[in-house]
Amino acid sequence: MANVHVPKPKPVFSIRWLPRIKCYVVIDPQGAVCSAPTSKDGAERLRDAKQAEADRKAKRGVRPCLRCGHDFLSEGFHNRMCQPCRGASSAEGMSNPYCMGAMTGRRKSA
Ligand SMILES: [Zn+2]
Predict the structure, then answer these.
(1) Rounded to the nearest whole angstrom, what is the distance from the C-alpha of residue 83 to the centroid of ligand 1?
(2) By percentage, how much of the chain surpasses pLDDT 70?
(3) 57 C-alpha vs ligand 1 centroid, how far in Å?
(4) For the CA atoms of 71, 52, 76, 100, what is the dihedral angle to 10 degrees?
(5) Residues 67, 55: contact at Cβ < 8 Å?
(6) How confident is the model at residue 98 (pLDDT cuts 50, 70, 90)?
(7) What residues does 14 pair with on adjacent strands?
(8) d(CA 42, CA 47)
């Protein structure tokens, strides 16, 4: 594995087979072993758990809504209002400047 240290925008955990001890371990985004040796199933579960934890630390997850203050599941630091509040702002006639265009526009057929 030569490209373990290639920087990526999203930290990714992986698993690695260690033939010497006949076990799998979880490798963190920096390429370091971050689990005890375990079975493939166990390593995959651990990797998923560590990935979820990293995602949480990257601000994906529950956060309070800027508008109503209720906790909601945020998609990231760009996502700071809960769904009802985002719907409410457009219902009040505020067009959302951060809203992406509908999928019907500007689609190139090559
Ligand atoms: Zn809200």
Answers:
(1) 7
(2) 72
(3) 21
(4) -110
(5) no
(6) low
(7) 27
(8) 8
